[in-house]
Design goal:
Elements (H helix, E strand, L loop, with lengths): L15 E4 L5 H14 L1 H4 L3 E5 L10 H9 L4 E6 L3 H9 L3 E2 L15 E5 L8 E4 L2 E5 L8 E4 L3 E7 L2 E4 L9 E6 L3 E4 L2 E4 H5 L7 E6 L2 E6 L3
Parallel strand pairs: 1-2, 2-3, 3-4, 5-7, 6-8, 7-9, 8-10, 9-11, 10-12
Antiparallel strand pairs: 11-14, 12-13, 14-15
Length: 221
């Protein structure tokens, strides 16, 4: 029997959700550029669902938003939680309307894998653990980046950038023996060096999200 040329099957994928809270395209572009600057290579080609639940105006410039995202190599898969008139606009420019549910949740699946790096991560290097945790047995140097969809554990000094919960997992943590990072981030919430230096507990410990704010607690490492 000849194999059919196409098959339609059910499946599920983890998509990041971008919540838009402003109609000002200039402000959106500026804030987006700031976030992309944290880890530019990580976000290239990232598929997004745009949540427009905060937009109450029918004249929202959806086409302008699409152009802002695509010009930065981000891909809009569809929109969710929008006004009916904005849904009609989305259809006219080729965007899907995604109902709230598994496909449009900002909470990803739990990490499935663990990536272990048994060496120092040096300046200019970027290590990414997709859909999992990252363990570094060594130091993360200045100018280096470690990224994980799950948690990050550094058994050494953390001096570069560490971004856990990169796909939106708010339960992710960053644990390091010595925290001297340029930047730490969990699910998009971040601290820079200046904030870490003000926190004595940040010498060695666990960084996690408490509500929508980062917090750090010292650990006997």
């Amino acid at each position: 029997m000849q194999t059919p040329s196409l098959e339609l099957k059910g499946s599920s994928f983890t998509l990041s959700v971008l919540h838009i809270n402003s109609q000002d395209m200039a402000v959106i572009a500026t804030e987006l550029d700031s976030k992309l600057a944290i880890a530019p290579q990580f976000f290239l080609g990232a598929p997004l669902v745009v949540n427009l639940s905060a937009i109450k105006a029918s004249d929202f410039d959806l086409l302008g938003l699409k152009e802002i995202l695509t010009s930065r190599q981000l891909i809009i898969v569809g929109i969710t939680s929008a006004l009916p008139v904005i849904n009609d606009m989305a259809k006219s420019i080729g965007l899907a309307i995604i109902k709230s549910g598994k496909a449009a949740t900002s909470q990803p699946q739990m990490p499935k894998t663990t990536k272990i790096v048994k060496q120092n991560v040096r300046s200019g290097q970027q290590i990414y653990a997709k859909n999992g945790d990252l363990i570094v047995i060594g130091a993360v140097g200045n100018g280096a980046e470690v990224i994980a969809d799950g948690s990050i554990h550094v058994y050494g000094a953390l001096r570069g950038k560490a971004m856990a919960g990169a796909a939106g997992d708010k339960n992710a943590v960053i644990v390091a023996q010595k925290i001297e990072a340029e930047l730490v981030s969990i699910a998009g919430q971040y601290w820079l060096t200046e904030h870490l230096q003000q926190n004595e507990a940040a010498q060695s410990g666990c960084i996690r999200l408490e509500g929508d704010s980062l917090t750090v607690e010292s650990l006997p490492l």
